[in-house]
Amino acid sequence: MNPQKNILVVEDDADSQSVLTRLLKTRGYSVCMASNGHQAMAETVTKNPKLILVDVAVPEMSGLDFLKWLRANHPGVRVIMLSVLEEQSSIAYAARALGVYDYFRTPPDFSNLLTRIDQAMF
After folding, report:
1. 3-state SS track over 41-57
2. Are 1 and 47 in contact (CB under 8 A)?
3. What are phi and psi of 37, to 5 degrees?
4. Rounded mean pLDDT of 6-12?
5. Which domains are assigned to the chain?
6. Secondary structure of residue 84 in the 3-state scheme
7. Which pLDDT belongs to residue 22?
8. Of 97, 110, 102, which is closest to residue 20 (Cα–Cα)?
9. In angstroms, rounded to a whole number, what is the distance separating the alpha carbons of residues 19 and 23?
10. Cα separations (Å) of 53 from 19, 74, 95?
């Protein structure tokens, strides 16, 4: 797996995970998946993704708690956070304070999301 093209998708909703994975693979990215925060930690350690798409509300560990762990252990990994909450929410502000590359409300505008993913990967 080429770590320069590797993206981790952290999403507990199987349909959303499937859609994101298909879209990313059609763009030529390698994709690994996790459905909770602890799996995301393990995948980050073993797969060394360049970018992580993480839903704020995943089981076992919130997306923000995962982001705090990530910043302490893998500070160079870029993160795009996904949430049903508005970008003006306290969660979005906290995510930005922790250095997320971008924040998208779900369901995202996939065209804009893919553009930001492409930009984050270079």
Report:
1. HHHHHHHCCCEEEEECC
2. yes
3. -65, -40
4. 95
5. 3-120 (3.40.50.2300)
6. coil
7. 95
8. 110
9. 6
10. 13, 15, 13
